[in-house]
Amino acid sequence: MTPSEVRLIRTRLVVLTAVLVTLWSYAAYLTSQDAIDLLRVQALADTLGQPIDRLILSLQTERRASAETIAGAGAGATATPLGGARELTDRAAAEIRRFTVGRDVRLLSAGEVRERADELVRRLDGLSTIRSQVDAGQLDQAEAVDGYDQVVDVAFRVYGPEWGAYESTLAADTRAVIALARARELLAREDTLVSAALTAHRLGPDDRRRLTELVNNQRFARAEAAAGLPDDGPGEHQRITSGPEFAGLLALEDRLLRADTANALAGTTLAGWRAAADSALGALQTLVTSTARGSVERATPGAAVLVARTGAVVGLGLIVVLVLLVSWASTVRRLTDALTRPVVDAPVPTPPVPTPPDVVAAPDVVAAPDGPDRELFLRITRRNQVLLRDQLNLLDGMQRRERSAEESGELFQLDHLTTRVRRNVEKLIALAGARPARRWRGAVPLLDVARGAVAEVPDYHRVLIAPHWPWSLAGPAVTDVVHLLAELIENALAFSPPDTTVRISGEHRPQGCAVLVVDDGSGLDATALAEANHRLASPPAAPPTGPSGLYTVAVLAHRCGIHVSLRPSRRGGTAAVVLLPAHLVPVNDTGRGPSTAPPTTPAPPAHHGTGPPDAGGNGALPTRARQTGPAHPEHGGAALDTVEMPVARAARRHP
User: Fold this and answer.
1) CA nearest 450: which of 465, 462, 468, 461?
2) pLDDT at 190
3) pLDDT of residue 611
4) Which one, of 317, 383, 392, 411, lies nearest residue 21 by Cα?
5) Cα 195 to Cα 207: distance, rounded to the nearest angstrom
6) How many CB atoms within 10 Å of residue 183?
7) What is the 3-state secondary structure (H, E, C) of 572-613?
8) CA-based nearest residue to 134, from 79, 60, 182
9) Chain-centroid distance, C-alpha 176
10) Cys-Cys link to 451, which of 177, 200, 371, 603 (CB 3.0-4.6 A)?
11) What value does the CA radius of gyration of the chain take, rounded to a whole number of Å?
């Protein structure tokens, strides 16, 4: 094996390594993202969620006490326990401040939550101003209550999309619990308004309108939040609101709303209202707490499965990648070491490698003294072929699940690159005198064979295939003919201007049929054309040191009994004529003649399928719906979207 061949193999293994590492990285990113979201939600609930709940409850108590203090000062009432309420608020605020200065690694991706928590801390720092103004009598009741309302609103805004970054049952439950807590806040604001009015023994017109608005809003908000609660949450809410916990509150609300303006508070005492409101507020808080705890308990088994899946993909996947990389590295090292062995002056004759009964003999491209090395190389290459099949199947599944158009396009390009790598692997096996593992038992439409060949070349958007091919190709010859046509198509693309097209069509011949690959390049002179046809008819015993495309075509054609020749095309380029014998190409529909239409159809790349080809039903080559590419110029053929060819399966859905 020459140094150039070793370098070529090393390059191909590097490409395989890049593809494999890319696939593992993408899969690890997708699975680890869910685990990171779960850890972030858990950390937020532990370090911030519970302190905010306690802060909101203490702010509601302090707001009511402040409003009663202001109302009592004007009516000569006794002082309320405002100091104790402020102490509870300060204690809860200290927990929020500790969160803003802490550094939990689980919260590295929760930057917006920290920003909102910082804003809450700044509002809490301003509470001292509100308190001093309340104590000095510088604020009226409405201004003081509004100041506390703004702080509570900022506390609720700390809850955001980071508490459930990916859609799940836990995220939906969390939103329902937060909605119910907001409904409880509306009831707490109603409690503050009525308590202050009873303390001052007066309910003015503005306060009455505000009370009507709060009662209606909190009833509606409770009903909406309860509808989204999980499991038996709506039923539990209905039981509470129709039970003794809410009976007193509903009766007092109805009395206050129906009373006349002049004597609205008649028959309502502060103690009676406080008992009814505290009962309802306590029942709602119990429902919020129990629902949140039940959601966490239900999500725990799913979280364990998520963590296990992440560990399997990231950990085991990394181990598999490392094992394959080490295996490939050792293969390259053995090939490199073989170049340093002493070269004997004369080759030692050895018996030829036996050819399987179903394989037409091909020139042996492996040196005779390296018989054991040849078998080892074939085994490793076949293993790589199996890995490529699994890799293509994984790509197929990822493309089906992917929702982003940009990432789906990149997966499409990666799929096409992997298909070309598979072609190189199978080409190595074929040039070693063996057959690739990918094969078909039954006949395959010749049109699908041509489309499969186009899928294995770069710049496939420039290739146009004529429709209506009435032939099928015998299954044992499918793999070799696909690679043979791919070599000719790639050669035609390489030796023609990038603004031209390569056309593929089929013609009926008395001895079978011919596949024509025509380009619009500069063509070959008579000497070069004669040398190329001689190489195709009589391939050398060993592969050439330069380009090996025509040599590969000759080997594959010789194996299948196919005749390949080159001739000038009518447009000045080169036409490759692949003559397929009659026993390989039975006609599908004897009532239809061969197509004479020009090649007007761009061929989408052939899909790799979801299993080994020889396990399929009818053995047809599956095809993929091609992504829309750039429009072709008018030179040399029709536009890219002239005719849309049918595909074997429905086009993939891109949400």
Assistant:
1) 465
2) 93
3) 35
4) 317
5) 12
6) 23
7) CCEEEEEEEEHHHCCECCCCCCCCCCCCCEECCCECCCCCCH
8) 79
9) 28
10) 603
11) 39
Which tokens belong to 9?
A: 């193999």
Q: Which of 378, 360, 361, 362 is nearest to 370 (CA)?
A: 378
**Mean pLDDT across the chain, nearest whole number?**
74
As a whole number of angstroms, the distance between CA 319 and CA 174 comes to 37
pTM over 0.70, yes/no: no
444 three-class SS = strand
What does the pLDDT look like over 482-532, one tens digit per residue? 989 999 999 999 999 999 999 999 999 988 999 999 999 888 899 999 999
Contact of 626 with 648, CB cutoff 8 Å: no
Under the banding of pLDDT at 50, 70 and 90, the label for residue 635 is very low
> CA-CA distance, 41 to 168, in Å (whole number)?
12
Candidates 415, 412, 387, 393; CA nearest to 321 is: 387
Distance CA 87, CA 256 (A): 33
What are the CA-CA distances from residue 328 to residues 15, 335, 546 (Å)? Answer: 11, 11, 25
| 126-136 pLDDT, tens digit each | 999 999 999 88
CA distances for 59 relative to 53, 129, 140, 189, 627, angstroms: 10, 15, 18, 11, 58
Strands 463-465 and 502-509: parallel
Asked if 24 and 342 count as a contact pair (C-beta separation under 8 A), the reply is: no
Provide the 10 A C-beta neighbour count for residue 291.
Answer: 23
Residues 6+ apart with CB under 8 A from 653: 400
| CATH superfamily for domain 440-615 | Histidine kinase-like ATPase, C-terminal domain (3.30.565.10)
Give the pLDDT confidence of 203-218 residue by residue, as tens digits.
888 888 999 999 999 9
CATH number of 170-317: 1.20.120
Contact predicate 587/468, CB 8 Å = no
Which tokens go with 514?
A: 């011919």
Among residues 605, 548, 550, 559, the alpha carbon closest in space to that of 428 is found at 548
Structure tokens at 161: 């999309």
